[in-house]
Every structure is written in structure tokens, then in C-alpha cells.
Specification:
three-stranded antiparallel β-sheet; globular; alpha+beta
Length: about 110
């Protein structure tokens, strides 16, 4: 994408606000990529484990940060059926990372600091 990566990230994270606004505003293409429900996220964790990977949700954000450590969290979020990335068309933009051998229908968010 031809843009400042910080703006891209900030706009991507705006999807956190999609669910409350869907009753007021139509879904954007970004919002349609994400399931935005915890049942779907639980199924995502099952699919990830079936690939032989364990990616736990971590919540050490704000006051939950460990003593003397930076605030950090990570969570897995399910994507809509047939969607493998948060791209405009839901299709891959880059190779899989880490130990992933195939798509599991989800994304991982990390927040530090």
C-alpha cells in the first residue's frame, strides 16, 4: 500500500469500532472481513490448534501489565468465511508467517506499549 505504515495501521485498527456502528453506518469493506464475535474466535482457536499451533490470547494491557514490564496484549480474531486476510478483497497479500502452513481463517493483533 502506498501510504505511511502508521496511518495504515491506525485505519486498520479502526475496525475495533465497526461493531457498535453497524446499526448506524453500513459496513465498510474492512468491517466485512472480520467476524467480530467471540464464538467465531473460539472456532478460530480450534482451527489453529488443528494446524499444530497454539497462539494464546494475552491480556497484560494497562493496569494488567506485569510489574516492571511494558503493557502488551495479543488476541486472535476470526475472519469471515472465504476471507484469509484483512485486505480489500480478503485474499493474501504476502506469504504466511512463522509456522503457518495454510490459512486458518484468522488474524493476530499485537499491541505493545
Amino acid at each position: 500500500m502506498r501510504a505511511n505504515w502508521k496511518l495504515v495501521e491506525e485505519n486498520y485498527m479502526e475496525c475495533y469500532h465497526c461493531a457498535p456502528h453497524t446499526s448506524i453506518l453500513p459496513f465498510s469493506s474492512l468491517c466485512t472481513a472480520h467476524e467480530l464475535n467471540r464464538d467465531a474466535d473460539a472456532r478460530l482457536h480450534e482451527r489453529t490448534r488443528a494446524l499444530g499451533l497454539e497462539i494464546p490470547d494475552v491480556d497484560h494491557w494497562g493496569e494488567q501489565a506485569l510489574p516492571g514490564q511494558e503493557a502488551v496484549d495479543s488476541l486472535r480474531s476470526a475472519l469471515a468465511d472465504g476471507t484469509v486476510s484483512g485486505s480489500e478483497d480478503g485474499q493474501p497479500l504476502a506469504p504466511l508467517m512463522g509456522q503457518f502452513q495454510k490459512y486458518d481463517g484468522g488474524v493476530t493483533f499485537f499491541d505493545v506499549g
